[in-house]
Amino acid sequence: MTGPSYTREEVEKLGDERPSRGEWCGRCRLFVPRFADLDEQDVEELRLLQKKNPGLAMRAIQEKTGASMYWAKLWVLHSHGVHEADPVTPCPYCGEPLRTPKAKQCPHCKADWHVPGKLRRLGDPRP
Asked: In whole angstroms, what is the distance from residue 16 CA to residue 91 CA?
């Protein structure tokens, strides 16, 4: 979902709430907002600034759009596009997606397989 850009009024009203539209980042699992107050020249200038000083780029976005630091950071971290989605690694015990491909515990079924050959459930006392 892309949807329309956020106006200054919307951005200021939403504060630190997660954006509900924009370009979807599969890795971060969130929408990257687009701002109505940024034209193409602003975007190019912000991208150049982002390369030199991301903090200054975030503050510039805040000034130009009224965005919170959270939204400004989202934009700066994705200023050259969204991340490619990581391949989903399923839990070997319940099949639900793990948070990372190298995870050794599952947030869904609470399986923990850090110790080879010794499955335990998170919350259970260690033997």
From this structure: 32
